[in-house]
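Review form for a predicted model. The reviewer records the input and the model, then writes brief findings.
Reviewer: anonymous (R2)
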Amino acid sequence: MADMEAQGPSMDIIKELSISDTDSDYAEDMRFDKLEVPATDPREPAAERFEGVLAACKAMKLQPGQSILAFAKQMIEEHTLDDTFYVIDLGLLARLHAHFVAAMPRVTPFYAVKCMPDRAMMATLAGLGTGFDCASPAEIDAVLSLGVPPERIIYAHPVKSPTQIRYAAARSVALTTADSPGEMAKLARWHPTAKVLLRIRADDASALCCLGSKYGADPGPAATAALSAAAALGVNIVGVSFHVGSASRNPQAFEVAIRLARGIFDMGASLGLRSMHILDIGGGFTAQVDAACDSVMGIGGVPSVVNAALATHFPLGCGYDIIAEPGRYFAEAVGTLLCTVNGKREQQTAHGRRTDYWLSDGLYGSFNGILYDHLEPCPIALPISSIPKSYEAAEIGAVASLFGPTCDGADVICRDVSNLPDLDVGDFVAFPKMGAYSWAGACNFNGFEAIWVKFFYVTT
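Model under review:
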C-alpha cells in the first residue's frame, strides 16, 4: 500500500522511548500518560529500528537454553522482587510478525492496541512496519507518540461519540469504521474528510468472543441502508471491514466473510460509491507456538483459507488493499505473568490435604480475562525460598486453590490445581501466555495496585 510504508523510531532518538527507572534498571512502567514523543526515520532499516527498541527498553538477550522462567528467577533474586511483574519476549514478537506477513503476504497487519497497550511492544511493531488499530483517543495518542504517521492508524471503533470523532479529525486520523446510517451522519458532520469502512456482521459462531451482536451491519438491508446514507451525505466510503470474533476457531469463517464483503463492494458500486478499495479482515487470529513459547508453529489453518478467498474475490492486481487487526495473535504468547505468594493456608479435608494460596494479582488485575475472555490460567511454580530451581523439577504437593489479593470472595484465579509443589510465602507462580487481554484491563479495586506493575523485556 503506497501510503502505508514502514515507519519506526530512529536510532538517534530511540532513547526517548525509555521512562525513568523506579526500582531497577530493567523494569519500566508503561502507561498512556507517561509516553514521550520520539521522531521517526523511515529510511532506517527495520532491523536497526528493532535493535534500537531493544536498547531503549533494556531488553536482555537470553542465552541459548535459558528459559523465560530462569530469567524471571534471576530477576527476582537480583532485584529482590516481591510483587507482580511481567516478562515480555520482544524476540518472539518479531518472529510472530515475520510469520504473519510470510503466511499472508497480501495482508498488512494493524495491531489491535486494546489487547496489550505496552509501549515497548508497540514500538517494536511500529519499527517492523505494522499499522495500528485504535479504539479511543488515548490509544491514538499512544501510537502517534511513537512517531507513527496517522495514515498507519485505523480508528476501528464503529460507534464513536462526537467528541471522539472530532479528536480523530484534529489528529488527521482519517481511516475509520462505521456500521449504521446514524454513524455516517456523525462522520459527515464532524469528520467530513474521513475515509470510512463499512463494518459488516460476519460471525464465527465458535469464536471465543463473538462481536456481531454489538457491532456490524447485517449484509442485507442494514448494509444497504448504511451505504445509501453515506452516498446521500457525501461520506467517503473506501471499503469494508468485518471481525469474525476474537480467537476464531473455524478458519472457514474467513472465507464466508470475505465472500460477503465482495457482495458489499458490488453493492457500493451500484450506489455510485467508486472509492472502495480497502478490505479489512479484522482479527480473530491465534498463534500456535511450541511449549516453550519460542517457535511459531502456525495460525490455526487461517492463512490458506484467507489467501484462497482473496484470490477468488479480490484478485491480485485489481487495486485492492487488504489489512487485518491482529491483537491476541501478537500479544498472547509474548507475555509471562509472575505473581508472588502473599499468604498460605493448609487444611485436611475428607478428600485429602488442600492448600490455599493468596497471590499478588487476581481477578481485578491481570486475571480479569477469566470474567470476559474465557481465560483458563495455567500456573507454574517458581519457588524462591525453599526449592531452588524447582521450575525444572518439583515434587507435587497438595491440591491447591489460588486466590487474588482483594477482599472479594469471587476473586479466585483457579481451584483444584494439582501440578504445584508446596510453596511458601515469598515464592512465585508463573503464568505463561498472559500477554493478551490481561494487564490491559486491570484496575486497582480495593486499593490493590494492579496497573503500575513492573515489566522486564527479553529477546530470545
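Findings: The CA atoms of residues 87 and 456 lie 5 Å apart.
Further findings: The radius of gyration is 23 Å.
Recommendation: see findings above.
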